[in-house]
Amino acid sequence: GEDVEQSLFLSVREGDSSVINCTYxxxxxxxxxxxxxxxxxxxxxxxxxxxxxxxxxxxxxxVLLNKKDKHLSLRIADTQTGDSAIYFCAENPFMTTDSWGxxxxxxxxxxxxTP
Amino acid sequence: xxxxxxxxxxLVTQMGNDKSIKCxxxxxxxxxxxxxxxxxxxxxxxxxxxxKELIINETVPNRFSPKSPDKAHLNxxxxxxxxxxxxxxxxxxxYPTSGANVLTFxxxxxLTVL
Lengths: 115, 114
What we know:
The structure holds two protein chains of two kinds.
Chain A (H helix, E strand, L loop, with lengths): L3 E3 L2 E5 L4 E7 L6 E7 L5 E8 L4 E4 L2 E6 L4 E6 L8 E7 L12 E2 L3 E6 L1
Parallel strand pairs in A: 2-11
Antiparallel strand pairs in A: 1-3, 3-8, 4-5, 4-9, 6-7, 7-8, 9-10, 9-11
Chain B lengths: L3 E4 L2 E4 L5 E7 L5 E7 L5 E8 L2 E5 L6 E7 L2 E6 L8 E8 L9 E2 L3 E5 L1
């Protein structure tokens, strides 16, 4: 995760919005992803954004991409206790055919939702 | 119906032993992967196979040997286990594409080496 950086921890009250930030270094990344990992489970894709987009909204999730600053964020509206998990930002910087799926992950942000 | 299934979920073994983790996907994907997640939750790719052919082989010790008998299965065999091999190993699969590579992950296999 040395090329993708995230803050390690976020505490948020139920009903508030959560914002998880990520910075990446490879400007060749054409897709950027957010994955969610619940305790004892695998990673589940939440959403992804194409690099020519600034924003993508999907129900309670909003992804913002600032390509100039290589900054990606995930906003979760009306955060629920079920949103407590680790959230991983990932990029796919190696867009040759033998590197598809070779994702570079951040270290993950632990989100704790308190009642 | 589990899309990507791994066995075993937990594995505790002694240093020096040899162990295997199995993975199967029923999504019809052509590409399968092994990722390693260390104790700090850092995820790194180890291998990928496309239709039984090795595509990605990161700088992983030779003690790790993946095998893909068919495109729905990718197994990981580890020889002479070391303490540093303790981690959670995730299998994943996807369609290879120049578009968004959406990986579907298994639930992980937690390996503890004593």
